[in-house]
Amino acid sequence: MDLGGVVLLRLGVLTPSRAYVRRGLSSCHRTTGFDIKRSVQKHYKSWLSFDAAMAAAVVTSCTLHSYATYRYGGRDVMDSQIPFACRNVRSDATITENVTQSLSREGIVVLELDDAVLNASELKSARQDVTAARHLLVTTGNDSNVRQDKVVRVNSTVILDEEKEGLTGVGLMFCVDLLRGVTHSLLEHGYIESHTHLVPRHVQLAEYGGDDGEHYVSHLDACLTSVWEMGLQSYMQSRDARGRVLTCILYLNPSDWDVETSGGALSYQHVGGADADADASTWTSISPRGGTMVIFDSRRIVHRVEPCYSTRHALTCWIMGQVDDV
């Protein structure tokens, strides 16, 4: 072995194969400097090829995982329409200039009692469809200490949840289209608190059972947490929630719902108000009577569902959009 080869071996740059070692270094005298250089190049080339392949595999795997996470976390964004495509005659008749101004001023507006958006026959039809769809309801996967409702995603054609599928009844279809038309109606009356809206094709049907005081703790519908606090994966999974600017709820319970006996009120307060453990006087409660519609700013209104002692149903559409920083 020439001096260059000895130096390479001593420095650990060249690692002899086992067969090469078994033959002993005595045989190395026949190896030229050129052979050693070629061996080194071959050795490192093979390792570089392996490392490159592994790096490519890791990058590809991470990319596919990230894309799947991003896509699943943004399925409403990726399956949505502009408000004009969702315009609805009934929504236009329901959402007036006064309703729009109240929403802009207070961050929330409630249409109930004489202003309820469903008449008796429409509510009855929707409730029958809800009963027919109950077998499709599934738990949300959230911590049971946070919420205990069961949900299914609904559009005006089919009820969807993963592999489960069934037809939506006419009554429920009417309600879905009514909710999805709200944004266009608000914009027609000059709503400017948010812009560049997208309306998901699917809305959520939720059921709270009345046996164990099922409820949902205080929360915002919009996710305002930064990526640094959440971590990248959780941040990507919350893509839909990060884009929410308006929440539209339509209650499909009996029109004579009594919160004193059945519970299930929607309680709310504005961001910056007292926390969830504060005196009840800091919260405003809304009865989830059938036909009642509630619209609020997803980024400003902290809300919770009080314990339910009767089965409670709500249809919810989350509108996505952008808000200009002040």
Automatic annotation (TrEMBL):
One Pfam family linked to the record: 2OG-FeII_Oxy_3
PROSITE patterns: FE2OG_OXY
Gene3D superfamilies reported for this sequence: q2cbj1_9rhob like domain
Swiss-Prot/TrEMBL cofactor(s): L-ascorbate
Fe2OG dioxygenase domain: residues covered: 196-321
Any GO molecular function: ferrous iron binding
Gene Ontology biological process terms from the UniProt entry: cellular response to hypoxia
Residue intervals passing through the bilayer: none
The protein's name in its UniProt record: Fe2OG dioxygenase domain-containing protein
Keywords carried by this UniProt record: Dioxygenase, Iron, Metal-binding, Oxidoreductase, Vitamin C
Top-level division of the source organism's lineage: Eukaryota
